[in-house]
């Protein structure tokens, strides 16, 4: 029987690095993208056009896009929080020689399920952010860019506690209505488990107004070590796209205490021998995880990566 395809959005160069306090040169970020490409990843979130006052680490994203090797057919989404970010990106794209592979063909807009998180992350309420993002999505689509949407704090909010799944559904629907092709559900804090994630997906996907699972992605931070289990719960609910970061890098500057995304290595290992087929070569990804962990001078946060290093 042929295996069912799972899409993986490698978010290491963005989510993975945005929280690092030491300055990482654009050359290193570009090399991370290049190494991930060689290891078989085909969707690589490569940076953010956000305010450098808010997230200094992402300030050099334009340079990263220029330096990294880009390939036809791959996708290199970048985060855009407002019209200013989109204009900076469009300006960059307009100056690019037409003969080159475009810097990117996709942006990701992001909001949250709670006002408290939205204010901490983007200085506006959820309703205000949806209004802002709707104009961004419209303009981006008109310019030929694909738009992905993120909803943060889908399980728990670091500022306002337990989150109502119905709210997640409403915000996701609003992002779809403005033209997002897919909604990535972010367990930003990483407190979700198969029961709470199952309840969430039951609400979001269920009922006559349910959002099809094919339009959803899972973005699970691994703070409590539940991310792989949560991915398998989401697979049971029909979700086939997951975000992960090589070496388990990452965290959100506005989610205190949360650790990195689920490690790409852990996801690939968990899917081995299953009915699902995912892009990327596990051993090669693990080598990238070892390299970037050493480069950042931090322990490899992927259990699978560490186990493979010890072999
Ligand atoms: P603000 O301070 O309200 O914005 O921030 P502002 O319009 O007043 O601008 C302030 C300054 O920033 C101005 O500069 C602007 O020009 C500049 P000044 O005049 O003072 O010199 N500015 C920009 N510069 C470059 N690019 C821009 C931009 N916009 C304004 N796009 C704002 C509002 C949304 C800009 C800010 O809050 C922001 O950038 N937030 C982004 C925070 C962020 O990147 N968080 C991490 C990503 S989300 C995440 O990690 C979660 C996710 O992984 C899913 C999950 O895990 O849940 C996706
Ligand atoms: Mg995240």
List the helices and strands and how they pair.
Layout: E1 4-5, E2 7-10, H1 12-16, H2 26-38, E3 47-48, H3 61-67, E4 78-79, H4 83-94, E5 106-112, H5 115-122, H6 126-142, E6 146-152, E7 156-157, E8 161-162, H7 165-177, E9 182-187, H8 194-205, E10 216-220, H9 227-236, E11 241-244, H10 264-271, E12 276-277, H11 282-296, H12 303-310
Parallel strand pairs: 1-12, 2-11, 3-4, 4-5, 5-6, 6-9, 9-10, 10-11
Antiparallel strand pairs: 7-8
Helix pairs in contact: 2-3, 2-11, 7-8, 8-9, 10-11, 11-12
This protein binds 3-hydroxy-3-methylglutaryl-coenzyme A and magnesium ion (MG).
Pfam family, one: HMGL-like
InterPro entries: Aldolase_TIM (IPR013785), HMGL (IPR043594), PYR_CT (IPR000891)
Keywords: Lyase, Metal-binding
Features:
311 residues, alpha/beta, 8-stranded parallel beta sheet, 12 helices, 12 strands, binds 3-hydroxy-3-methylglutaryl-coenzyme A, binds magnesium ion, PYR_CT, HMGL, hydroxymethylglutaryl-CoA lyase
Give the structure's gist in a few sentences.
By secondary structure, the chain is α/β, with parallel strands linked by helices.
Protein architecture, described:
GO terms for molecular function: hydroxymethylglutaryl-CoA lyase activity; metal ion binding. The protein is α/β, with parallel strands linked by helices. Helices cover 41% and strands 14% of the residues. The chain has helices spanning 12-16, 26-38, 61-67, 83-94, 115-122, 126-142, 165-177, 194-205, 227-236, 264-271, 282-296, 303-310, and strands at residues 4-5, 7-10, 47-48, 78-79, 106-112, 146-152, 156-157, 161-162, 182-187, 216-220, 241-244, 276-277. Strands 2-11-10-9-6-5-4-3 form an eight-stranded parallel beta sheet. The mean pLDDT is 97. It binds 3-hydroxy-3-methylglutaryl-coenzyme A and magnesium ion (MG).
């Amino acid at each position: 029987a042929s295996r069912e395809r799972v899409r993986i959005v490698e978010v290491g160069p963005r989510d993975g690095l945005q929280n690092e306090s030491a300055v990482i040169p654009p050359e290193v970020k570009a090399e991370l993208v290049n190494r991930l490409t060689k290891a078989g990843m085909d969707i690589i979130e490569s940076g953010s056009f956000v305010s450098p006052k808010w997230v200094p680490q992402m300030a050099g994203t334009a340079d990263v896009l220029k330096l990294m090797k880009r390939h036809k057919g791959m996708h290199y989404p970048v985060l855009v929080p407002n019209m200013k970010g989109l204009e900076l990106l469009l300006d960059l794209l307009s100056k690019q020689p037409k003969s080159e592979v475009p810097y990117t063909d996709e942006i990701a807009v992001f909001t949250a399920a709670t006002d408290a998180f939205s204010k901490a992350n983007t200085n506006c309420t959820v309703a205000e952010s949806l209004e802002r993002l709707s104009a961004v999505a419209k303009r981006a689509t008109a310019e030929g860019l694909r738009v992905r949407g993120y909803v943060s704090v889908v399980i728990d909010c670091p500022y306002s506690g337990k989150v109502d799944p119905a709210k997640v559904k409403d915000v996701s629907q609003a992002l779809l209505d403005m033209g997002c092709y897919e909604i990535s559900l972010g367990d930003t804090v990483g407190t979700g488990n198969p029961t709470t994630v199952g309840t969430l997906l039951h609400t979001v996907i269920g009922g006559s107004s349910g959002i099809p699972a094919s339009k959803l992605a899972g973005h699970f931070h691994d703070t409590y070590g539940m991310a792989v289990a949560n991915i398998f719960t989401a697979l049971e609910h029909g979700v086939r796209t997951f975000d992960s970061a090589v070496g388990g890098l990452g965290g959100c500057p506005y989610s205190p205490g949360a650790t990195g995304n689920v490690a790409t290595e852990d996801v690939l290992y968990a899917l081995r021998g299953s009915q699902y087929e995912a892009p990327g070569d596990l051993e090669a990804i693990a080598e990238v995880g070892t390299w970037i962990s050493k480069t950042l001078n931090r322990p490899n946060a992927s259990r699978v990566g560490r186990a493979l290093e010890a072999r």
